[in-house]
Structure formats: C-alpha cells, structure tokens
Design a protein that fits this description.
With 266 residues, the protein is α/β, with parallel strands linked by helices. It has helices at 28-40, 54-65, 81-99, 123-131, 144-150, 153-170, 198-202, 210-218, 234-240, 244-265; strands at residues 4-5, 11-18, 44-49, 69-73, 107-111, 137-142, 191-194, 223-228.
Length: 266
C-alpha cells in the first residue's frame, strides 16, 4: 500500500470512520469518492467501519481505493463509539507505519470524516508544515466564502458560533497563542498531527466528537491552522438545509462539546 511522500520520503496516512445502515445511504457514494481520490493522490487510507453489512461496505471501499485503502471492522469491545473508532483507526495507521519502517517524526496522520471527500485534494497543504518540521498539529480552516456557500445555512451559523466560543476559551493556552492558532476552526472536523504524537489520541477515552479535539488541547505542542478551499458536498446541503432533524443534531453536538471541550478549556 502506498503513501503520499514528499521529496524527503516523508509520508501521510489518512484515517476515517464509517457507519452506513446500508449502501444506499446518501453518504456512501461520498466515502467511495474519498477512496477514489485517495487512490488518485496515492494517500494510504485506514478506515474503521461499524456498518451492519460490514463486508459489503469493506469490499466496495477497498475496491474504490485500488490498493490504497484498508478497511477494518470496529472492535467495539475495546473501542467504543465514534471516539473509539477514531482511536482504532489511529492505532491501525500507526501499526502500518511501523511495518513500513516510517520515521514517526517525519510522518503525519490526518483524520477527516468520510463525507468530506474533497479533503484529499488539500492533503499536501494540510500536512506541509508538519512534514517540514515547523509545527506538530494542524487544524485546517474552511475558506469563509466556500463555508457559507456550500454548507447548510444552519450549520454555517452554529459552527461559527461554536468556533468563536472555543477560541475565546483557548486564548489562555500556550499552544494557541501563535497568530495562526488564534482562530481555530474547531467544528470543521479534520486535523493532522505528527505520527509520534499518536499516543495523545490513543490515551483519551472519549466516545464522541470530543475524541477529535481534546487530545490536541492536551498535547501541549505547536498548533497551526491553514486555510483550504474546501467544498462541502452539494447533496449534503440539499438534504440537511431547512430540516429540523439536522438542526437538532447540530444542537446536540454543541451541547456535548460545550460540556466536554468547554470544561477542558476552562
């Protein structure tokens, strides 16, 4: 399996987690697109899946990835919830890097949700500062224009509100004092870190969205942000905008994060 490498032989592994009630789920084609882009961009990708029909999902995603994607079934006895799936994916990515004799100091692991397929087109920009040694953790930021244009309007406003709140809390932390770390896009989701920091995520036992963010608060390492021209999938905006089912989900997410991440930052 192949990794994205720079001229020094440094590499990147993308990790994500999936769950589909069936393969007709509107998000499943987006995961296939992510795997296809991983193959096109030669990004080694590790997926942990908890779908009822795991075999069908695994086979389709690995076929789309053309040798660049490996799908594992979530071991819920050890790795609970979405946060547990993330830890399992990071663990499997680290095992892959160990087997390939990669230098953890010159390797990045990047997480993104599977429906954010366009992230694969920005991978080099996201991990560049990790690979050149100038930072340890990168949280990409959505361009304001495309954020407003391509996201459901309710999500645009709720996530802007949450970002303002968490950035105001984070000002007291040394890692968030640099100019490009003062306006973190907390609610975007994707992040990347130097592979040698994997234990920071593996040691945090959260089971929800907090498992993505709290570890980079606790890491006490250099944190940077980079703006990318990310385009959210059109079909997701069409499905979610104006639907109270999704605004309730956004509120539930904010309540979880205001509690867990808010406490961590307070």
């Amino acid at each position: 399996m192949t990794t994205v490498s720079n001229s020094s032989g440094c590499c990147v592994v993308l990790v994500t987690v999936t769950y589909y009630p069936n393969i007709s789920d509107i998000r499943f084609p987006l995961a296939l697109e992510l795997c296809q882009l991983a193959a096109t961009n030669k990004i080694q990708t590790v997926i942990v899946d908890d779908s009822p029909d795991h075999s069908a999902v695994r086979d389709a995603l690995e076929k789309a990835g053309k040798g660049h994607v490996k799908v594992y079934q979530q071991d819920k006895a050890i790795y609970e919830g979405k946060g547990g799936a993330l830890r399992q994916a990071i663990y499997n990515a680290r095992e892959f890097l160990l087997e390939s004799n990669s230098n953890f100091e010159n390797t990045a692991i990047c997480f993104a949700e599977p429906e954010k397929a366009d992230i694969a087109n920005h991978m080099n920009l996201i991990v560049q500062r990790i690979l050149d040694g100038s930072t340890d953790i990168v949280v990409p930021t959505r361009s304001e224009e495309l954020f407003r244009e391509t996201y459901p309007i309710e999500q645009y406003h709720s996530e802007n509100f949450a970002n303002l709140h968490f950035n105001s809390l984070a000002r007291q932390y040394k890692g968030f004092q640099t100019e490009d770390a003062k306006q973190i896009d907390w609610l975007f989701g994707p992040f990347a870190f130097r592979a040698s920091l994997a234990d920071t995520w593996l040691n945090y036992k959260g089971t929800s969205w907090d498992a993505q963010m709290i570890p980079y608060v606790r890491a006490n390492r250099r944190i940077s942000s980079v703006t990318i021209n990310f385009r959210h999938p059109k079909q997701m905006k069409e499905q979610e905008e104006g639907d109270p089912q999704w605004t309730k989900k956004r509120l539930r997410q904010l309540n979880i994060l205001f509690d867990l991440l808010g406490k961590e930052l307070s």
